Amino acid sequence: MIWSRWRRFKVEPLQQASPKITLLLNTIASPLQAGIYEEGRLIEECSVEGKTSAVLLPLLDELLSRYDISRIVYARGPGSYMSIKLTYITLKTLEIVRNIPCYGCSAFLLNGGKPIKAMGNLYFIKEKETIITKKFEEPVDAEFALPHTIDDLELDEESTPEYMLPAV
User: Fold this and answer.
1) Are 153 and 65 in contact (CB under 8 A)?
2) Which class does domain 21-111 fall in?
3) DSSP characters for the chain?
4) I need a labelling partner for 165 at 20 to 30 A (CA). Which of 1, 9, 31, 81 fits?
5) What are the angstrom distances between the C-alpha of 46 and each of 17, 30, 59, 139?
6) pLDDT tens figures, 51-93
7) Cα–Cα distances in angstroms (integers) from residue 147 to residues 38, 102, 124, in the given order
8) pLDDT class for 160, splitting at 50, 70, 90?
């Protein structure tokens, strides 16, 4: 006589690994830009007019409720000191509270390396690896754009802001 033993196992459906969702934020200039990237490809973008202090938290709240964000990248400078500072503090708080890693990237990567408004007719420019301010008599049109993919975006492991304040 052959005996066989059957065990009952609770069969769970196979869970698919959730896709890696990255949030890219650019708060350097108005409008504030946000891009949602799935596996490195842009799947949604939005722009919000207004001060960073008024629009950043509601935007983050909405995006965090809609997506399982696994990391956040932000333009860490140069640009608006207050926007960079507020964004950094907010994202570091999310990193601590929600365990979502935060990375930085140069704002020059999001505008094709063109000058970035500092104040008045002063602009930040990048010469080789050095960022300096330069005066332009005419306003410089340097729009920011979110990349279609972020696979090749040069990320800084260091997420601290890149403050570039002119001498007072």
Assistant:
1) no
2) alpha beta
3) ---------PPPPPPPPPPPEEEEEE-SSSSEEEEEEETTEEEEEEEE-S-HHHHHHHHHHHHHHHS-EEEEEEE--SS-HHHHHHHHHHHHHHHHHH---EEEE-GGGGTTT--EEEETTEEEEEETTEEEEEE-SS---------SB-TT---BS--S----PPP-
4) 31
5) 26, 12, 9, 25
6) 999 999 999 999 999 999 999 999 999 988 899 999 999 999 9
7) 13, 18, 21
8) confident
pTM of the complete model = 0.84
Whole-number Cα distances in Å, 27 to 3, 19, 54, 86? 70, 25, 12, 9
Where are the domains positioned within the chain?
Answer: 21-111
Question: Which backbone phi and psi does 83 adopt, to 5 degrees?
Answer: -65, -45
**Which tokens sit at 124?**
């930040």
Residues 6 or more apart whose Cβ sits within 8 Å of residue 7: none
Q: Write the single-letter amino acid at 52.
A: T
CA distance 90 to 93: 5
The CA-based dihedral angle spanning residues 107, 110, 113, 117, taken in that order and rounded to the nearest 10 degrees: -50
